[in-house]
Amino acid sequence: MFCLGGFVDNQYTIEGTSLHDRVHTMGEGQREDTWQIRAVWLKSERYRLIGKSDLIEESDGRWYPVEYKRGHRGEFDNDELQVCAQALCIEEMTGQPVPLGYLYYAQSHQRQPVEISTELRQQTIAAIEAVTRILDTGAMPPAVYSPRCKGCSLYAQCLPKAVAKVAQYQEVG
After folding, report:
1. 58 with 31: CB under 8 angstroms?
2. Domains of the chain and CATH, by start
3. pTM, to two decimals
């Protein structure tokens, strides 16, 4: 989306946008002993991140990001990386450690804890650094087909299978 400089809606992006429109209704409230704040802008100078959180909770002096997803837990770790990136922002903004975050999957109505472990932090920082290199250099990563491509709204612009075939024919020719 950022490399190509465009965005195309599909069923999944429309459903996700609808969910986030509801979630991002600004406000705050108390739920038992937990203070909940919706649609908070998060920022990290260190990692050059900025974005809007779905929900931030505070309980017993600890802050927890809660990310809403339209579907269910997938086989990839991108959801956990997103929660960890939010935790990194909250830590920088508050000066307090964030050991835990949550993913809420609308399809299953399940909230899953995400431990903000050293390993997850390292993976998240590596992903941030990789994206930063792409943005700084403008170097487009090669299109590589994977099962993740099936639901991508930019599949028709990216054409990873076609790119692979062209590369294969160029090697032969």
Report:
1. no
2. 11-141 (3.90.320.10), 142-173 (no CATH)
3. 0.73
